[in-house]
């Protein structure tokens, strides 16, 4: 029975351009996952959007002397263009968190938490500008380091001695906007009572955690063991989802609620849910099918800095909102990708723009290499020399070359109807499908790629062992027998690479005249499906190598 699969992709923050680390970390894994599930007949809803709120956006706006709204529009447009036009990521909806639908749904979550008794009011201290008559986010405050006396240091960490500065420890705090002195003053906020929710979350993690990578599970369990702490859900800021003041009883209303906003950690994850509702409205679909009942699978993709928000807080928010809602199954978190061993950093010039590399090499090459080095269990590094080595030595020499040799040898030939895939090839193909399915289900993309490459290696071995190019001239019968096996592998590869290398898979479809590599054969029926197909293959006159070698001397990076 086919499943309904929700794929939630982390919401990129719109205060800077995305780099290749984002692609390897969560964008590409999510897209492979979506394409795979569609190819096996599951109904997929892949959603995400721009994360629009919070101080990094207002800081960026101040820096560029434009409004936060303009910052959002600018980057949202850039990211949407990148995802749609350049990367061809298969989102069903890509929206933003300042959409009225999202604001309304976030407020609904807030009210449910308040009504359920999971929010309480408490005071914290925050920098306050008496002249501006408003509270200032930490990032707008500078002062003197209490450790080394450096002036104009940030409020949370000294730029000079590197020591962390606790909230309120900064000496002579000043606004870095106006230069005027600021006070450290009490302010009321709502807090999520995580300790109260912890038992329910623990129960969830006990079961769901089995689907996660070990390190993800361990880190989550570590947080639970230490005990969840209450967490502020509102802050003194004017750029964010407003507190639904009209819907809160007087005795539960905090002071100056109108000048406070809901924290971005609380609202961004709600985007997975609000986007599902918006998708249903736009497409006349049923969002309920993806959130209630049996036969559902929910995947979430993100970088490691987002872990607890998805393994602990988001499930907790969902439970309180409606206990019938489906909770995250697979939380797929990657470590970081570095560039030649260094962390990506705009200021230090360690950058690699996605557009640049995709325009130069094409999507498939980039998808292949990033999957091969995907930081699934530890940080990994994008290394130029390694890219050449792996593309030329593996993608071209192993996979591309096998396909090209086979189809070139077969061009203009026809197989007899009686030819069938033999036992050895059957088991090689079945094995590749079985492993690929398992690895794709559990988001182990490096292993999935390995199992595809194992199959092409098997094909290459057959070509060499039987010297097929000689057989073609000397022994028609044996040539056809071996060619049957090779074509069987070619067709299997056409399916298997579809989620990972959609463009290559589609070219292969053109070269063979076969349609539909994006719909995999039924599980266990691979050979029955492929056997008749190989006899329909007519190699196109336009046949070219599926992938071509990179020439290092052409490198402009
Ligand atoms: Zn210092």
Descriptive report:
- Residues 5-407 form the Methionyl/Leucyl tRNA synthetase domain.
- Belongs to the class-I aminoacyl-tRNA synthetase family. MetG type 1 subfamily.
- It is found in: Cytoplasm.
- It catalyses: tRNA(Met) + L-methionine + ATP = L-methionyl-tRNA(Met) + AMP + diphosphate.
- Its main location: cytoplasm.
- The strands form 5 sheets. Strands 3-2-1-14-15 form a 5-stranded parallel beta sheet, with helices on both faces. A 4-stranded antiparallel beta sheet has the order 5-4-9-10. Strands 7-6-8 form a 3-stranded antiparallel beta sheet, with no helix packed on it.
- α6 crosses α9.
- The radius of gyration is 27 Å and the shape is elongated.
- It is built from 18 helices and 17 strands.
- The longest helix is centred in the C-terminal third of the chain and has 27 residues, at 384-410.
- 48% of the residues lie in helices and 15% in strands.
- With 557 residues, the protein is of the alpha/beta class.
- The chain has 2 domains: 4-116 and 192-334, HUPs (Rossmann fold); 384-552, Isoleucyl-tRNA Synthetase, Domain 1, CATH 1.10.730.
- The protein binds zinc ion (ZN).
- Zinc ion binds at residues 145, 147-148, 150, 158, 160-161, 163.
- Zinc ion is lined by residues 145, 147-148, 150, 158, 160-161, 163.
Give a brief rundown of this model:
Helices cover 48% and strands 15% of the residues. It has 557 residues and is of the alpha/beta class.
Describe this protein with a few key phrases.
binds zinc ion; four-stranded antiparallel sheet; alpha/beta; five-stranded parallel sheet; Rossmann fold; 557 residues; Isoleucyl-tRNA Synthetase, Domain 1; 18 helices
């Amino acid at each position: 029975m086919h499943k309904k699969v929700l794929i939630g992709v982390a919401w990129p923050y719109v205060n800077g351009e995305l780099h290749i680390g984002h692609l390897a970390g969560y964008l590409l894994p999510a897209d492979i996952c979506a394409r795979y599930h569609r190819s096996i007949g599951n109904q997929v809803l892949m959603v995400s959007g721009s994360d629009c709120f919070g101080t990094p956006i207002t800081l960026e706006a101040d820096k560029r002397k434009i409004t936060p709204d303009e910052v959002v529009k600018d980057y949202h447009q850039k990211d949407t263009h990148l995802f749609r036009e350049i990367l061809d990521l298969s989102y069903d909806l890509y929206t933003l968190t300042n959409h009225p639908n999202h604001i309304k749904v976030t407020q609904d979550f807030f009210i449910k938490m308040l009504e359920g008794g999971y929010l309480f009011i408490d005071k914290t201290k925050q920098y306050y500008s008496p002249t501006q008559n408003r509270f200032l986010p930490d990032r707008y405050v500078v002062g003197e380091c209490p450790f080394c006396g450096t002036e104009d240091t940030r409020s949370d960490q000294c730029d000079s001695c590197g020591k962390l500065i606790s909230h309120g420890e900064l000496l002579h705090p000043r606004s870095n906007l106006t230069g005027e002195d600021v006070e450290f003053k009490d302010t009321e906020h709502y807090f999520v009572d995580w300790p109260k929710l912890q038992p329910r979350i623990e129960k969830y993690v006990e079961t769901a955690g089995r689907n996660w990578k070990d390190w993800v599970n361990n880190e989550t369990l570590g947080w639970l063991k230490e005990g969840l702490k209450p967490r502020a859900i509102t802050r003194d800021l004017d750029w964010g989802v407003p507190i639904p003041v009209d819907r809160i009883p007087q005795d539960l209303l905090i002071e100056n609620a109108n000048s406070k906003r809901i924290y971005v950690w609380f609202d961004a994850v709600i985007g997975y849910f609000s986007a599902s509702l918006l998708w249903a409205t736009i497409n006349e679909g049923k969002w309920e099918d993806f959130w209630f009942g049996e036969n559902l699978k929910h995947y979430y993709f993100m970088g490691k800095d987002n872990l607890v928000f998805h393994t602990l807080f988001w499930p907790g928010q969902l439970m309180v909102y409606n206990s019938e809602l489906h909770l995250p199954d697979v939380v797929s978190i990657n470590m970081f990708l570095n560039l030649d061993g260094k962390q990506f950093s705009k200021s230090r010039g360690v950058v690699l723009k996605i557009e640049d590399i995709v325009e130069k090499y094409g999507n498939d090459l980039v998808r292949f290499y990033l999957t091969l080095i995907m930081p699934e269990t530890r940080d990994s590094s994008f290394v130029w020399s390694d890219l050449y080595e792996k593309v030329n030595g593996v993608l071209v020499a192993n996979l591309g070359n096998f396909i090209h040799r086979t189809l070139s040898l077969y061009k203009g030939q026809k197989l007899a109807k009686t030819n069938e895939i033999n036992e050895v090839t059957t088991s090689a193909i079945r094995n590749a499908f079985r492993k690929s399915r398992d690895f794709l289900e559990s988001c182990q993309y490096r292993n999935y790629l390995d199992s595809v490459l194992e199959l092409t290696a098997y094909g290459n071995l057959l070509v060499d062992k039987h010297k097929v190019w000689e057989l073609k001239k000397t022994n028609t019968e044996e040539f056809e027998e071996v060619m049957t096996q090779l074509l069987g592998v070619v067709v299997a590869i056409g399916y298997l690479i579809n989620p990972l290398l959609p463009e290559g898979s589609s070219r292969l479809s053109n070269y063979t005249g076969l349609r539909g590599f994006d719909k995999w054969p039924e599980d266990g029926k691979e050979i029955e499906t492929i056997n008749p197909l190989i006899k329909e293959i007519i190699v196109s006159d336009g046949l070219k190598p599926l992938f071509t070698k990179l020439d290092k001397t052409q490198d402009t990076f």
